[in-house]
Design goal:
about 140 residues, alpha+beta, Immunoglobulin-like, 5-stranded antiparallel β-sheet, 3-stranded mixed β-sheet, 3 helices, 8 strands, about 15% helix, globular, disordered N terminus
Length: about 140
Amino acid sequence: MKRFLAGWGAVLLACQLPLSAETLTVQVSGIKDPGEIHIAIYDSAEAFEGDKGGPAEGIVDGVVEEAQPGSVTYTFELTQGRYAIGVFHDANRNNRLDTGLFGIPKEQFGFSNGASGRFGPPSFADASFELVGEANQVIDLGQ
């Protein structure tokens, strides 16, 4: 009986450990005002391109945290794979990216790889990168 339970303990422990922990460092620079930084890390085109704000399937990690003007750096441990990052600075802390006439953002935002879209967010293909080992992404909001 003891060997049986010990075997299950090993199985349960293995289920809790990530297959391979890779390190992603995200630096967000160019923050103009105090407010909240919202970072979402996506693992699929459907999630990235279909995001309407707030928690969603396909967002595998992220941060919502107070930030002061300047820059902030975050480190995430993820499994090996293809990811894209979306960031916005919520200056008025209302948990959404405020837009004006024609949907033009009033608050700072940015994407991994410095990707930008023509009339909206960029595609997952433009913003995505392969995470193998360690990766660094610098997202400049001061553009």
